[in-house]
């Protein structure tokens, strides 16, 4: 018999055997095949092995229907990495491989590179000043074309400006400023158009260490906000490209890609493969295939880009390595940062983990000597310095719609100088609570253990956990009273208050509500850079990696949220978040200032923030972690379960707890408990925490334990998953 073992995207953690027809050429390892599976006539799987024996009787074997690839779609290097990931995260190999492919290729689409669109300036476009255009994005594109080699941009570069970049480019074509051409994708493009920046001593030392690295070597690049980490990446990548190798650059958020794409393109002058979820399915598949074919020396993308096949990989960069966005929170729950480190190790190449506030796990690795620590202690701009941080004690200050008097005064002074202010509040909507004054009733979500948030723009109450909506009641459902009102502040309420206090100022709100439309975030950020906003107010979308040269004031409105978190990572995330948003102030020649409103100014977190003392905070937090037995001093896995039936998840976890007996002495199982938010989107949730002092015994235990769970009838009654190295306990 000729039997092909196929990885199928199903939760069952094994390969599936299929007969090869006599007339079919055996598929190569890593090629896609179309097979029947269960009741489905055709499913796309990936061939892993060809064998001559199987445990199944021949009459039960089904036959491969057709081959989709003549050559492997996934390289041996990536397949081995995915195999490791499936083992480490104890997840189905079929679903792991499926997660590594763009949707178009998962669905059986052709693995062929189409011709690419290239936009080139006309004579009229070459002569026109970008300032003559009214639309900000059209201005940016025209300026980018005029600065680009041969006055042309390809499709990935235009997509780097966001989805609306395509719309703006079509507008330039209609105006006769640009022509569109179809051409074959090539490996080469004209050279760079921008010179490298001069390096300060710390940057030069970091670049020297990275360029001297040979083989696998992990570096932790800790640089204060505005210290020029990107310039270190660029000059290191230049050396990699000069040797004929390629680079993988990971970023945590889609919103960071346009400015990086533009900067990389301008400096390095080579094709980029840009990969993130904001792209269309065809665009993402094309970029992936371009990288696989070696036609893009730089792959720049978000989380799943870590699995992209890249020939001659020479360097991996993980920017903002501490960011929680690198962890997939459902399905295959992997950490792109950790997989990137493993990929670098297996490929024998250096990896740079960059952050102003490294995760405590990464910092601990550096202190143990496993990572080499590189530090950028000063801002890169000669006249820039870290902004002073002032604490506004809300126990002694009245606030109106989230704004204290000292903060409003600082905003007014900023406006008078023609500078921009940024207000950070990680809570969207108008108010987090719609409450009855007479009896205290708060409108709840019917599907979650949560309150509904009032959104005044749509006059709706919305759950930020499941998306459920309700009309705003005019009478209290509990006491029939008519005195209901919004309690607390969200970004929408702050925006309204700012418009009232500063009638002549241009206020721009950036949160999930204002950036839902494709390309909206890129357009809003372009408006900020163009000086079309005086006051920015928003959520964490504004806190990461953006360079706003004219922002000199940052106000943090509700800094205490992380102090009340039930998650042990809450204080670390709070510190990182405030450092990131505070780092937007004073990045150029004008000095910055940071005002933090808090009810707990004496807390050690705020003491460290005032002193810009990340290492002091880290010492404090690591001591707490060591005493409590949390990472990085112990290793965790979380068995999660959920069901529409209220008692089913806990019943399943109690049975799973029994399967674990006797547990090894180095592994400890907690008792099953309801999740902190037990009911979410109509489903009840519970969890069971597993702790171990070392990884090896933890994974050995999980192998045996999960096999018992899979074989149990209880496993079919609830939806369950295992989360290795969880980053939250919700």
Description:
It is built from 21 helices and 34 strands. The radius of gyration is 27 Å and the shape is globular. Helices cover about 30% and strands about 25% of the residues. Helix 12 (about 335-345) links the parallel strand 14 and strand 15 (about 350-355). The mean pLDDT is about 90. The strands form eight sheets. Strands 12-13-11-14-15-10-16 form a seven-stranded parallel sheet, sandwiched between helices. The protein is of the alpha/beta class and about 725 residues long.
Task: Output the keywords.
single chain, 730 residues, alpha/beta, 7-stranded parallel sheet, 6-stranded mixed sheet, 21 helices, 31% helix, 23% strand
| Number of beta-strand segments | 34
Which consecutive residue ranges, at least 5 long each, have pLDDT under 50? none
> End-to-end distance, in Å?
49 Å
Structural class from helices and strands? alpha/beta
**Helical residue percent band:** 25-40%
Rg is: 27 Å
Query: How many H/I helices?
Result: 21
The geometry reads as globular
The residue-averaged pLDDT reads 92
Strand order of the largest sheet: 12-13-11-14-15-10-16
| Main beta sheet strand tally, sense and closure | 7 strands, parallel
- Provide the β-strand percentage band: 15-25%
Write the layout of secondary structure elements.
Elements: E1 3-7, E2 16-19, E3 32-37, E4 40-51, E5 62-63, E6 66-67, H1 76-88, H2 93-99, H3 103-106, E7 116-121, H4 123-127, H5 136-147, E8 152-154, H6 155-159, H7 164-174, E9 178-183, H8 201-212, E10 217-223, H9 229-242, E11 246-250, H10 257-268, E12 272-275, H11 281-292, E13 298-301, E14 313-319, H12 336-347, E15 350-355, H13 360-367, E16 372-376, E17 389-393, E18 399-400, E19 403-404, H14 405-416, E20 420-424, E21 433-436, E22 453-455, E23 460-462, E24 469-471, E25 484-487, H15 491-501, E26 507-510, H16 520-529, E27 535-538, E28 551-556, H17 570-582, E29 593-598, H18 604-610, H19 614-628, E30 635-643, H20 648-659, E31 667-669, E32 673-680, E33 683-692, H21 695-711, E34 719-724
């Amino acid at each position: 018999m000729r039997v092909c073992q196929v990885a199928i995207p199903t939760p069952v953690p094994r390969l599936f055997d299929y007969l090869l027809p006599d007339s079919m050429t055996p598929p190569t390892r890593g090629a896609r095949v179309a097979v029947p599976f269960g009741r489905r006539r055709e499913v796309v799987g990936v061939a892993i092995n060809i064998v001559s024996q199987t445990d199944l009787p021949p009459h039960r074997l089904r036959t491969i229907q057709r081959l989709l690839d003549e050559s492997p779609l996934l390289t041996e290097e990536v397949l081995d990495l995915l195999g490791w990931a499936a083992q480490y995260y104890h997840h189905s190999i079929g679903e792991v491989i499926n997660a590594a492919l763009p949707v178009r290729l998962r669905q059986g689409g052709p693995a062929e590179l189409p011709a690419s669109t290239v936009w080139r300036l006309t004579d009229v476009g070459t002569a026109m000043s970008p300032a003559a255009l009214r639309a900000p994005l059209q201005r940016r594109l025209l300026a980018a074309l005029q600065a680009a080699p041969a006055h042309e941009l390809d499709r990935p570069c235009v997509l780097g400006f966001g989805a609306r970049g395509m719309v703006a480019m079509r507008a330039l074509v209609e105006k006769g400023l640009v022509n569109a051409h179809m051409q074959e994708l090539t490996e080469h493009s004209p050279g760079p158009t921008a010179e490298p920046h001069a390096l300060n001593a710390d940057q030069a030392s970091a670049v020297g260490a990275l360029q001297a690295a040979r083989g696998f070597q992990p570096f932790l690049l800790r640089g204060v906000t505005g210290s020029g980490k990107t310039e270190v990446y660029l000059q290191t990548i230049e050396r990699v490209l000069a040797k004929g190798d390629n680079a993988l650059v990971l970023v945590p958020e889609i919103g960071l890609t346009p400015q990086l794409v533009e900067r990389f393109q301008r400096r390095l002058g080579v094709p980029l493969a840009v990969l993130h979820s904001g792209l269309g399915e065809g665009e993402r598949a094309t970029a992936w295939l371009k990288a696989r074919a070696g036609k893009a020396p730089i792959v720049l993308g978000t989380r799943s880009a870590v699995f992209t096949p890249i020939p001659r990989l020479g360097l991996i960069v993980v920017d903002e390595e501490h960011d929680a966005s690198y962890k997939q929170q459902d399905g295959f729950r992997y950490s792109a940062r950790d997989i990137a480190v493993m990929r670098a190790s297996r490929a024998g190449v250096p990896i740079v983990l960059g952050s102003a506030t490294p995760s405590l796990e990464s910092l601990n690795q550096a202190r143990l000597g496993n990572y080499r620590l590189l530090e950028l202690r000063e801002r890169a701009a000669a006249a820039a310095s870290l902004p002073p941080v002032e604490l506004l004690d809300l126990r002694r200050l009245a606030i109106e719609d989230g704004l204290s008097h000292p903060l409003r005064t600082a905003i007014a002074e900023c406006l008078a100088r023609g500078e921009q202010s940024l207000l950070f509040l990680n809570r969207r909507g108008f108010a987090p609570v719609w409450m009855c004054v007479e009896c205290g009733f708060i409108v709840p979500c019917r599907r979650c253990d949560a309150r509904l948030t009032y959104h005044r723009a749509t006059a709706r109450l919305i759950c930020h956990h499941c998306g459920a909506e309700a009309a705003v009641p005019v009478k209290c459902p509990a006491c029939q009273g008519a005195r209901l009102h919004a309690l607390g502040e969200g970004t929408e309420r702050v925006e309204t208050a700012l418009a009232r206090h500063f009638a002549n100022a241009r206020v721009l709100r950036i949160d999930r509500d204002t950036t839902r439309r494709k390309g909206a975030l890129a357009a809003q950020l372009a408006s900020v850079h163009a000086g079309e906003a005086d006051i920015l107010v928003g959520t964490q979308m504004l806190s990461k990696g953006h360079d706003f040269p004219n922002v000199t004031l940052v106000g943090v409105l509700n800094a205490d949220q992380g102090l009340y978190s039930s998650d042990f990572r809450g204080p670390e995330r709070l510190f990182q978040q405030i450092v990131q948003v505070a780092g937007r102030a004073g990045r150029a020649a004008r000095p910055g200032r940071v005002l933090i409103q808090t009810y707990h100014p004496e807390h050690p977190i705020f003491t460290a923030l005032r002193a810009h003392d990340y290492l002091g905070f880290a010492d404090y937090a690591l001591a707490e972690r060591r005493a409590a037995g949390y990472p990085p001093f112990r290793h965790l896995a979380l068995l999660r379960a959920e069901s529409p039936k209220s008692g089913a998840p806990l019943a399943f976890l109690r049975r799973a707890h029994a399967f674990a007996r006797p547990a090894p002495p180095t592994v400890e199982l907690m008792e099953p408990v309801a999740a902190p938010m037990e009911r979410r989107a109509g489903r009840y949730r519970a969890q069971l925490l597993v702790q171990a002092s070392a990884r090896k015994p933890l994974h050995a235990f999980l192998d045996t334990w999960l096999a018992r769970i899979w074989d149990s009838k209880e496993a079919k009654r609830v939806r369950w998953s295992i989360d290795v190295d969880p980053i939250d306990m919700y």
